[in-house]
Amino acid sequence: MKLFAASFVPGFVLLLLSSGCVVTDPCGDECRLGIRSACTCAPDDPCNWRFNGVCDDQCLAIGANPFDDAADCTPVIVEPCGGACNARAYNACTCAPDDPCGYRNDGVCDDACYAIGANPLDDAIDCPPVIVDPCNGECSAKAITLCTCAPEDPCGYIGDGICDDACYALAVNPLDDAVDCGPVDPCGGECSVRAYSACTCAPDDPCGFVGDGVCDDACYAIGSNPIDDVADCGPVFIDDDGDGIEDLEELWFAETFAPTLAFAVDEAWADRYPSWAVEPTTGGISIFYALSYYDDGGEDATGETGFYGDPEFVVVEVVQLPDESWDVDQVFLSAYYGEVDFDVSGWYPAEAFAYDTSDGGIHPIVYAVSQDHAMFPTLADCDAGGWAPGLCDDQGALEVLEIYEDGNLGNPINPLWDEVVLTFDNIDYSEFYFTPVPFCGWWVEPGAPRDGCALNDYATLIGDWLAGAL
What we know:
Layout: E1 3-4, E2 13-17, E3 20-24, H1 30-33, H2 178-181, H3 230-233, H4 247-256, E4 260-264, E5 275-281, E6 284-290, E7 293-296, E8 307-310, E9 313-320, E10 326-333, E11 346-349, E12 355-356, E13 363-368, E14 375-376, H5 379-385, E15 395-400, E16 419-424, E17 427-432, H6 458-466
């Protein structure tokens, strides 16, 4: 057999024999049989199919990077979304905003893309204009939520002909749908239903109740300073203790003329929970201040021992002047009240006192003996009037007596408070103002004997005051 030399083609060994051609197939006979496989379609074109006049586009289905048979076929276009474009599938790739598949302006509305992501391709050319719901579908459902009711009106509810006043119950600062509903209810819907609350009854009259033809006297039970609806109700007069003085006026008297206490600089027994009462007198007003100290600290200089509770009291009587203003007439100060041989309590004229007017009130300054709280109108009187001289030196800061709005005791006929309960370490302790039991400064537990307490009780002291027996 005669052997002829032949040229070599990359990937082939071609031998021409005298009896015919012998070809070594680099893909195990797949080239000769025209089978499209990972080998025959490899990018180096092992079968030399490129430029052979046959379009081998079947190779495109074999791998992501087949050989380019553009010479025999139309140019190869690599599918950017792994075949999803040709299948017109909708996913994060085909619906990307750069429109990799060319869906935009192809005559087909691809609005299914809007469910794929927050920023899909905009196929407005093929579909109606797309409006993305800023509240994830809640706007289109006309739902009332924190999102749809936001003050910037993301859903365009304002002026759409529907009153969205349900929004007012959801947020402190909801959208203002006054165009569709009328003005916004400043109390979260309570104005529109005429509910009486701390908001609707506020003194600035947020709901416009005053002068609207309806008497809103129910507001007077809501707070100490409600709206004044005298235009619809007439003058309002609340007098819970029945003494002929309006409750708010009694509070004004108590606050305006409360004593200012001057304690020793090292006073350690000044803690208290005061109460008060107001009664009319002939030509004036009398105000009883129950100072209600937790303890009497005794007197170290004399060895006088202390005890639980110290029921000291001050009475300020005021009169009305010709110009209808009020001023102090006289003051009673307790100092060992009721103690035989030691009681130096007494009435003092108004001019015996200096006055603290720093807050606009008229507060007589009262000097208290260190630790046992006996009271005098001047520092000199205090220093000379205690159990031992010198106990009032080195006075500290001045303290206006606290006046609690709910501290009005009333009177024995119409008591507003008798038992006053304070809680310490989760235990309730009681003291009484019209029940004649020793005052113990909230130290004795309920049911326990009232031993080691003050000799006086406030029921007796208040009785002496009202009877003119001080």
